[in-house]
Predict the structure.
Amino acid sequence: MATEIKAPTFPESVAEGSVAAWHKKPGDSVERDELIVEIETDKVVLEVVAPEAGTLSEVLAEEGDTVQSEQVLGKIGAGGAKGGEQKKEKSSDKADAKPKSEAKAAPAAAGKSHEVKAPTFPESIQEGTVATWHKKVGEAVKRDEVLADIETDKVVLEVVAPADGALAEIKAEEGSQVESEAVLAIFAEGAGSAPTAADEAPAASADDGSGDEKIGDKILAPAARKMVAEHDLDVSKIEGTGKGGRILKEDVQRAVQAGTAKKSAAPAAAPKQAAAAAPAFEGERPEKRVPMSRLRQTIAKRLVQAQQTAAMLTTYNEVDMGAVMSLRAQYKDSFVKAHDVKLGFMGFFVKAASEALKRFPDVNASIDGTDIVYHGYQDIGVAVSTDRGLVVPVLRDTDSMKIADVEKGIVDFGKRARDGKLGIDEMQGGTFTITNGGIFGSLMSTPILNPPQTAILGMHKIQERPMAVNGKVEIRPMMYLALSYDHRMIDGKDAVQFLVTLKELLEDPARLLLDI
């Protein structure tokens, strides 16, 4: 019985996508979790993997076709191994007539050239910028290895190698503006440095054409390899349950949940390296002009739009962080041992904000035209600063999360944001945002709304100040809080009471446990 290959479930803001590339042809055998086709939306490229092993029997959506969420793209039939064996047997009749050395030399001798093109941009994206070339001319690469990054105003797109070989010529240098499907480089199939015996061994051990990769003595499926890279895991610590010990996506998921495959801490980079990366200026009054990145342009546009379309006001209060700091100092070592993550301040703020949002639903609402949308859940975005700009990944259903889950989520978001590995769906749909300028030393600021949300909380630096406590002056660790809100939706009374509730919950964390 044929198995349907379906497009992923698109986020609410994505109406449709287009078939960017099929990595398999009808009749090709595929393994479970092997990459088959890529779907390109206006915000991100989505990978579709094989739901089970077999043979690609039918393609229902050709490259370039527009597809809807969960639309059937193709079908997989049974007997993939047999089909593959029959093809190998037919080809082996001719291959046996030639010496093995000639068979190995054939691909290199063919030297077929390919044009490396930019991805097909959605209608909302006019052009992109060549951000980085990961390979140099003449450097050997493998099929599907990343050659270059194209930065648009919404997401960074990866351009991969069409086959094993090397770049023969780069036509669009870093920083160049390119249009959809523009030729970026010329790729020579089979070129580059000759493979060594060590390089040939992994290819021989993996299934032919499967896209598997051998790392050490472990064979990884494509989907598993992607998860290993995202979570920076030690492959040698993962036990494979697939055929011949092959590591599947499920094996990596189990390792991530169990936390048994983490890499040992790497030594910190030498400060000299960071200093060497700084641009060198000459002259008495040096200047440097660089184009604004597309992400920075989008951030600028959204911030100006927020100020122009919302009736934004900010209310302030201050919170005594003594109770939270005392609780954190008392349990920080036990917390790390129990949950393998440090206990920070953000977990307390997210949990306190979740409780306050339940009590003040207007602060958790959004405006859609002339309608007010009240959200019966709390999805809190946490602003993360990266080299490319500010991004706001979202923690889902924070009301049901434990503080440890919040801290783990924030650490994961921060790492992947700096590596550019956050998905567009992880940065959409928040109902409230928290930003922490205190980590950079900010004592007080006015945060700007993150549309379509109607409120944002700003945290700041903890500063010891003299305070009147029960008629006496004491030095207390104080933090200013700022709540910016859309006055079209939220009245000043509700905004002030929301902030007071947050203050009370943080100054007496037991309230979070007792729900009072």
User: Anything to note?
Assistant: The chain has four domains: 1-92, 106-194, 196-256, 310-514. The two ends are 57 Å apart (CA to CA).
